[in-house]
Amino acid sequence: MIKKIAFLVFVLVSILDIVGIIFKVPDLIFIFKPFILLSLLFLYSSSVFVINKWYLLALIFSFFGDVFLLYSGQTLFIMGLVSFLITHFIFISIVLRRIQKTSFLKIISSVIPFSLVFLILIFGLKDALNEMLIPVIIYGLTISTFGTVSLIDFQNRKTKKSFLMLVGAIVFMISDSVLAINKFYNATHLFEITIMITYIIAQYLIYRSMVLEEKGNN
C-alpha cells in the first residue's frame, strides 16, 4: 500500500513539474521539481527491505543538482554539474560492482558508441562553451563512462536489471545532451520539456534496476 502511494506521489509530482514547464508556470516548477527526487527516494525506500546506501547517496546528490539548476547563474550551474557528476560516479561504482569478468571485445564494443556520441557533442558545442569547455568535457566523459560500463554489464549478463540500468544511462545521456545544446547552443521550449521528461524516465529506470538488484532478481 505504501509503495503504491509512493509511486502515485512520484508520478503526480513529475506530471505537475512537466505541466509547469509546458505552460511556463514558474511556481509549479519551483514547488514540484525538488520533490521529484524526494518522492523517488520515498518510493525506493518503500520498495526494498535493505537500502543500498550508495544509491541513496546518488538520489540525494541528484536532489541537490535539481535544486541548484532551478536557479540561473554560472556558479549555481557548476554546483549542479558537480552534484550530478558525483551522482554518476556513484552509478558507475554500482555498475562496476556487478561486473566480474569481461572480454576485451565487449569493452571496445561498449566504449565506441558512447565515445562517438561524446565527441560529436563536444565538437559541435566547443565554440559555444568557452570557459565551460573543461567542466563539460569532464562531465561528458563521466556520463559516457556510466553508459559504457552499463553496456558492458548488459553484454555480460543480459538480465532485466542490467537492461534497465543501460537504458537508464542512455536516456540520462540524452537528457544531459539536450540540456547542453539548450544551454550553450540553441535554447528552445521543446528542449526544456524533453530534458525533464527524459530525466525523470532515466531516474525511474535506474530505480527499477536497483530494486531488482536488492531483491536478488537477475
UniProtKB/TrEMBL annotation:
Protein name: Putative membrane protein YhhN
Keywords for this protein: Membrane, Transmembrane, Transmembrane helix
Molecular function per GO: hydrolase activity
Record localization: Membrane
Pfam families: YhhN
TM spans (from-to): 5-23, 29-47, 54-71, 77-96, 103-126, 132-151, 163-181, 187-207
Entry similarity comment: Belongs to the TMEM86 family.
Principal place of residence: membrane
Source organism superkingdom: Bacteria
Keyword Zinc: no
InterPro entries: TMEM86B-like (IPR012506)
A Gene Ontology term for the protein's cellular component: membrane
Keyword S-adenosyl-L-methionine among UniProt keywords: no
Membrane-topology descriptor: Multi-pass membrane protein
Organism listed in the record: Lutibacter oceani
